[in-house]
C-alpha cells in the first residue's frame, strides 16, 4: 500500500509539472505575439503616405509668394489711380489713347507671352533632368525678353519724337511712369533668366528641392511680370 501511495504521488507531481510547463510555454507564446503586435503598432505612424494621396506641391518658396502679393498690391494701387485720373481727365485719356502705337504694344504682348510659354516648359525640363532642353527654352525666353526691351525703347523714342512726353498730359505721364516701373521688372527678370540658364547647365541628375525651388521662383516672377503687362496693355492701349 505504501508503494502504491508513493507511485500515485509521483504521478500527480509529474502531471502538475507538465501542466505548469505548458502554462509557461503558452505565456511565452502569447508574449511573443503581443510584442510583435506592439512593435507593428509602433511602426504604423512612420509608414510612408499612400501614393494615391500625394502631398500637394506648391511651386516656389514662401518668400516669392509674399513678394508677388506685395507687388500686386502696389500695382493695384497704380491701376486704381489710373482709373481715377481717367474719370477726372476723360478727354486727355481719350486723346492719349488715340495716339498710342498699338502695333508695338501688340508685339510686346506677343513677346512676353511667348517668353512665358518657354519658361513654363523649361521648369518641367529641369524636373526631368533635361538640362540642355531647359537651357534652350530659357535662351528663347531671354531672347523674347531682350526684344521686348528693345521694342519698348523704340516705342518710347517714337512717342517722344512725336511730342508725347510726360509733360504732354496726365495720360502720358502715367503711361511713362507705369511702363517704366514694369520695364524695371522685365530687366530684373532677365537677370534671373540668365542665372537660371547658367544653373541649368549643372543639372545632370534629378535636381534636389533647393535647385528646383530656384527655377520655380524665377518662373513665378516672370509670370508676374507678364500678368502686369497684360493689365497695362489693356489700360493704355485698349480701353477707350
Word description of this protein:
It is a single chain. The chain has 240 residues and is mainly alpha-helical. It is 82% helix and 0% strand. It has 7 helices and no strands. The protein has helices at 2-43, 62-88, 90-99, 102-127, 131-161, 170-200, 209-238. The longest helix has 42 residues, at 2-43. The radius of gyration is 37 Å and the shape is elongated. The relative contact order is 0.12. The model is unreliable at 1-17 and 30-51 (pLDDT under 50).
Provide tags for this entry.
single chain; 240 residues; mainly alpha
Secondary structural class: mainly alpha
Low-pLDDT sequence parts? 1-17, 30-51
The percent range for helix content is over 70%
Quick one: overall form? elongated
Could you state the order of secondary-structure elements as H and E?
Answer: HHHHHHH
* Sheet with most strands: none
Oligomerization state of this entry?
single chain
| First-last Cα distance | 128 Å
How many helical elements? 7
Mean of pLDDT: 82
Strand content: under 5%
Question: Which radius of gyration do the C-alpha atoms yield?
Answer: 37 Å
Number of strands: 0
